[in-house]
Design brief:
Elements (H helix, E strand, L loop, with lengths): L4 H14 L2 E2 L3 H5 L12 H14 L5 E5 L7 E7 L2 E5 L9 E2 L5 E10 L2 E10 L2 E7 L6 E7 L10 H8 L6 E7 L6 E7 L7 E3 L5 E2 L6 H12 L3 H21 L7 H4 L9
Antiparallel strand pairs: 1-10, 2-3, 3-4, 4-5, 6-7, 7-8, 8-9, 10-11, 11-12, 12-13
Length: 270
């Protein structure tokens, strides 16, 4: 097969349109359970799955990059035709970004909010790569820092996975739904540290609570995009939250800061 930058970019955007990001799948994975593929997967598994897809298309040099700031996130590095490319499905970057000769670049990414793209800024200084995402209509910024000289092909050990899933910054279990026609994203969210119940966060940042008249039709719309039923979404999120609490108790001895991630035991309601 003739590998090319065009094929690499196609696989990047196709991945975004077919596999949802979902932190809610992490408890299933740690518990050794299977889950319906429609519910997506977390960022580390996104990298693993996309790496597998690319190697199936004969991209032979695809490696992992681990974030140095929070030690949670994982991206990909791809070597092709003597050039180095950065790939990040979690940040919804719809193409591979060439790093050779790069000082700083801004890239349009998803979601699009009120006709405005999200922006990812990449800055490279030697082997150090800084990647920052700005979200339209919000002061939210997400940042990762990588050492591209430390790219590797090692899969995560169980204890490392535990540290990432129960990191103190992990405050919710969620599924992110990218609309393949509008490139907008909506989220189904369960706050694990308060157990206040599942809600929907729209592309514009509105929170729709279960007691709102908008909740049922919005959930039905999101479920349709995931190709599942609203009932299965609620059941999946409920089971994810239960597993999260059980696993937190079970593995407290290997969690770096168990009190920071401890959920307040409450009642799941929708």
């Amino acid at each position: 097969m003739n590998v090319s930058k065009e094929l690499l970019d196609f696989q990047c955007v196709e991945f975004l349109r077919t596999i949802a990001y979902s932190s809610a799948t992490s408890p299933f994975l740690l518990n050794g359970d299977r889950w319906p593929v429609q519910f997506g997967t977390n960022c580390c598994e996104e990298a693993k799955v996309l790496r597998h897809i690319l190697t199936q298309f004969e991209f032979s040099q695809v490696y992992y990059l681990d974030d140095q700031l929070t030690k949670r996130h994982r991206s990909l590095l791809c070597e092709l035709d003597n050039k180095t490319y950065y790939i990040n499905p979690y940040f919804m970057i719809p193409q591979a970004i060439e790093l050779d000769q790069l000082d700083s670049i801004e890239v349009d990414t998803f979601p699009i909010v009120n006709d405005e793209y999200s922006i990812v800024t990449l800055t490279k200084d030697g082997a150090q790569l800084s990647v920052t995402k700005s979200w339209p209509g919000s002061d939210r910024k997400d940042k990762f820092q990588f050492d591209i000289s430390q790219a590797h092909n090692n899969e995560l050990e169980f204890e490392d996975y535990i540290q990432r899933v129960f990191h103190e910054e992990q405050r919710t279990l969620s599924i992110r739904v990218l609309d393949v026609y509008t490139n907008a994203t909506d989220h189904i969210v369960f706050p694990i540290q308060t157990c206040d119940g599942m809600y929907i966060k729209t592309n514009e940042g509105q929170q729709i609570m279960p007691d709102s008249t908008e909740f049922a039709p919005t959930l039905a719309n999101l479920s349709h995009k995931l190709r599942v039923t609203p009932k299965s979404v609620v059941s999946f999120m409920r089971r994810s939250s239960e597993l999260y609490i059980d696993l937190h108790q079970k593995h407290r001895d290997i969690i770096s800061n168990p009190e920071a991630t401890a959920p307040r035991f409450g009642t799941f309601h929708c």
